[in-house]
Amino acid sequence: MRDILSISRLISGVIILITIGCSAPSKSDTQYIINELMKKQEVCWSSGDLECFMEPYWHSDSLKFIGRKGLTYGWQKTLENYKKSYPTAADMGKLTFTNLYIEQLSTDYVSVIGKWHLERSMGNLEGHYSLLWKRMGGQWKIISDHSS
């Protein structure tokens, strides 16, 4: 009888551990992940690597980017627009993001509002952004970006 009771307790413990391990990440875990992804974007941009910068964006024709020229659909078109607007490392400068507000809307969606700043020898640029992140296949991806 003791063996059956011990096995039952062991199984219950394993089930609890599996449940804890499979639960959704906490709000602070998600914020940390988003912040780290955006820090990597800063490094990629500042080193002149637009493809690296675009890694967290949803690689889909359904990606939405809203900028000063209006709405653009698609990862490839967004990348092409960045290349036209920032053709050289001097044009790109050093990028800094400041996240002002991060809200976890659900286990799979996060809204981020913040400021961007480009430090450049030809003159600095800055503005604001609103990002909608979605967890897909265990990874966080930007599905909508409104930057101005």
UniProtKB/TrEMBL annotation:
DUF4440 domain ranges (all copies): 44-142
A Pfam family of this chain: DUF4440
Superkingdom in the source lineage: Bacteria
Protein name, per record: DUF4440 domain-containing protein
